[in-house]
Design brief:
342 residues, alpha/beta, Rossmann fold, seven-stranded parallel sheet, three-stranded mixed sheet, 12 strands, globular, binds nicotinamide-adenine-dinucleotide, binds thymidine-5'-diphosphate
């Protein structure tokens, strides 16, 4: 199968490309189209550079010429499957400045779809990677795929735009679109601005862990390998025009995750620093995953074991995260501004 993966230099995209090569070997060819924003790290996939079935295209999903180049595939013969991970992905950044979120998470999706339509490509699948955050927050129960979308921050509103644009291309032009809405991912190669990698790397440095509000917000945690396997399953067995929730079934309060991380690292609870709350902070995300299970896929990774494995990965890959934290003036500037406002 010939894949076009966008955002493959980021967290989930790089795990997905590695998953494909591990599972399919030379039967898979992958073009990785990535803009290399602050979150894109080309070296995440250094092991595949130079291989005949992998091609990195440095470009923007919102630029038609970059998209046209990537759709050529690794050898000019085209692609069968598109998996669109490329996005601005951090809620706090979207609260600070939403413009790039609309550009990539909405308009970028349009440009990717529109190229396939105008060029009359016969794709097998176009997978739009959406998020559980498009539903908004839920106090009790879980969201099903037919529940209304009520995004509550600029990130989730932009993702909802891309999600519905992909759906519209399925309905209007008959494009073979599947939309997936996954819960909070964790695992290796996650940029240390998100809860788990930020807290692990701060704790390793004996720096404080800024827990927002009362720490009782709930997220459903999905190990990235389960997410990759679910996407692969849906490319094979999903139904076009359908939306699928992908949840880990591991709902935890942030304060519980925080204490677990400290325990695993043998660090004191005094590192926790309760800070002001995120504006418009969604209280709880929860997905009903019966549709995916009925199709034949169930996420089965044990949460505690996966968290331990993830923490160990950060211990073992200190140069990876330290380079990010040290080289990026932009990264430091964002956090200084962020906490100054709390
Ligand atoms: P990430 O921020 O780690 O990676 C995003 C990647 O996209 C980076 O490599 C970046 O360089 C690239 N990118 C950004 N703008 C681009 C553009 N205009 N053109 C090309 N490349 C661009 O994000 P992630 O956590 O790996 O998330 C991947 C996808 O999964 C996103 O669509 C996100 O909304 C979705 N998602 C993430 C989670 C999660 O918990 N991380 C959960 C559900 C859904
Ligand atoms: P995050 O990893 O940013 O993912 P999302 O906002 O997309 O769910 O945050 C996960 C939860 O952790 C969320 O409730 C906000 C909280 N959080 C903190 O308490 N402190 C932090 O420094 C960060 C980054 C997040």
């Amino acid at each position: 199968m010939r894949y076009l993966v966008t955002g493959g230099a980021g967290f989930i995209g790089s795990n997905f490309i590695r998953f494909l090569f591990k599972k399919y070997g030379d039967d898979a060819s992958v073009v990785n189209l990535d803009k290399l924003t602050y979150a894109g790290i080309r070296e995440n996939l250094a092991e595949y550079e130079g291989k005949k079935n992998y091609r990195f295209v440095h470009g923007d999903i919102a630029k038609p010429e970059d998209v046209a180049e990537a759709y050529k595939g690794v050898d000019g013969s085209g692609v069968d499957v598109v998996v669109n991970f490329a996005a601005e992905s951090h809620v706090d950044r979207s609260i600070d400045d939403a413009a790039e979120f609309v550009e990539t998470d909405v308009r970028g999706v349009l440009v990717l779809l529109e190229h396939a339509r105008r060029a009359k490509l016969s794709l097998r699948r176009f997978v739009q990677i959406s998020t559980d955050e498009v539903y908004g927050s839920i106090e009790d129960g879980s969201f099903t795929e037919t529940d209304p979308l009520q995004p509550r921050n600029p990130y989730s509103a932009s993702k909802a735009g891309g999600d519905r644009m992909a759906y519209a291309y399925a309905q209007t032009y008959g494009m073979p679109v599947i939309v997936t809405r996954a819960s909070n991912n964790f695992g290796p190669y996650q940029y240390p601005e998100k809860l788990i990698p930020l807290f692990v790397t701060n704790a390793l440095d004996d720096q404080s862990l800024p827990l927002y509000g009362d720490g009782k917000n709930i997220r459903d945690w999905l190990f990235v390998d389960d997410h990759c396997a679910a996407i692969d399953f849906l490319i094979e067995h999903g139904t076009n025009s359908e939306v699928y929730n992908i949840g880990g079934g591991n709902e935890r309060e942030n304060r519980e995750i925080t204490h677990k991380i400290l325990e695993l690292l043998n660090k004191p609870a005094s590192l926790i620093k309760q800070v002001g709350d995120r504006q418009g902070h969604d209280r709880r995300y929860s997905l009903d995953t019966r549709k995916l299970e009925a199709a034949g896929f169930k996420c089965d990774t044990n949460f505690d074991a996966a968290l331990e494995k993830t923490v160990q990965w950060y211990i073992d890959h200190e140069p990876w995260w330290r380079a990010i934290k040290e080289r990026s003036a932009e990264y430091r500037a964002f956090y200084e501004k962020q906490y100054a406002n709390r």
